[in-house]
Amino acid sequence: MTHVVLDACISCKYTDCVDVCPVDCFREGPNFLVIDPDECIDCAVCIPECPVNAIVPEEDVPADQLEFIKLNAELSRKWPAITKRKPGLPDAEQWKDVKGKLGKLVR
User: Fold this and answer.
1) Range of the domain at 57
2) Tell me, what CATH number does 69's domain have?
3) Distances (CA, A) of 89 to 14, 77, 84, 96
4) pLDDT tens sequence across 45-97
């Protein structure tokens, strides 16, 4: 199994999770992070680091966010690896509790 980054990360892009990943499986887009399912070793150390609870094991992805499994796999093949923490997006605080942000995703 792998872990999946969900909707909550969009427009926030906190990168606390990146610092703890032992295999550098995170990929960075303009306003979202994804996990490369081929690289993730299912260690779960990233989960408690995410300040917006955007990372879950694949088997725990909510029914209304199942498309994020495919989206993480697809975008991880296109986006570069991120291995060091960066500041969240400038307006991350205003977006962190907003639901249904898929339309805000910049590919």
Assistant:
1) 3-86
2) 3.30.70.20
3) 7, 23, 15, 10
4) 999 999 999 999 999 999 999 999 999 999 999 999 999 999 999 999 999 99
